[in-house]
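User: I'm curious whether this sequence folds into something compact or stays loose and floppy. Could you predict its structure so I can see for myself?
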Amino acid sequence: MVEPKEISKTSQGLSVVCQSDIVFSHPGDDVVLSCHLKPAISAASMEIQWWHKEDPVFHYKNGQMTVNIDFEGRVSLPLQDLQNGNVSLTLRDIRGSQKGLYICEITHESQSIQDTVFLHISSEDFRLVTPVGTVSADPGSDVILPVHLSPETSAVPLDIRWFRGTELIYQYKNRKEKTNFENRVSLFTQELERGNLALTLRNFQPADSGDYTCKVFHDGCLQTGTVHLQVREIQRCDDARLRHLHSVLQQVQNDILLQKAQLLQGTINLLQETLNEDEMRNNAFGPAPRRSNSREGIPPLMGDDGMHQTRTMEAGSVVFERNFNMHITSRTHSSAPNSKCHKRVDEMYAVADYLEIYFVSF
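Assistant: Here's the prediction. I'll summarize afterward.
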């Protein structure tokens, strides 16, 4: 730094003036420390130096610039505005360690002038928030290990590291990423501004199961959070649930069979009544010839003892009706009835034949 005896606030009517005594900012922000010459003459031919406390930050002389390695790529002067006496310093992506007193020093005609500005960086207290319980994933899938800062704070200026056990698998620092799991792990870098530190692990395998630890370094402090990752287990029904489901299914089947049995029994009853009426008419015209397919002596098709032997009926009333009509037609035409009464009896027997065939077959 220039010897103190050479430095003053003004030199032959020229002074450097910082717009504010103190500037407030937050980690990760860009900030301008505004300073200008008064009167506003060109500073292009002058030597311009910015200091942070006693450490040099930026040096300009004869069009050449030198930057402190700790500020490299993150500090600049408005070169196009030097003609107007603007000597402001722009700091990008500031860090908590860069807070404190900044000195702007201008050397002109062997005289040095300076002014100061204090940069206050609000260091918000934050903590890492990790999920409660275990994160589960299917083999071959991509899985996110969720971690975020609370309250929501920019993580851009932080040093972020992810470990699997004790092995470092990912690091984010100074906007650069490093990883030992090539093409398998990454952060949502566009979400860092919102404090999202979630790690994405691609093509998860059972061997990847275990504890993953996120470590964040900031202003000499360390915050940690751990996420446990495991293979998702296939859910299995217990025996009690299986028995319950079987019971429900059996009840549904029984209800269906009961409805079908009631329908069949009603049809048989109607058929029996019709046959009885026809028999009464036959007595009036004389006895009808004995038929080889008579249903006399055959017990009802459905009863309490035979209910359990009934099989599942085919779905579709259209199929039933088509087959039924074909069966009735073939039976009545082949018998060549010689009276209306006999034709009616043939039809009734045909109904009985078809019902027995149909319901025994399902």
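Summary: The chain has three domains: 4-121, 127-231, 239-361. Confidence is low (pLDDT under 50) at residues 1-6, 291-318, 335-341.
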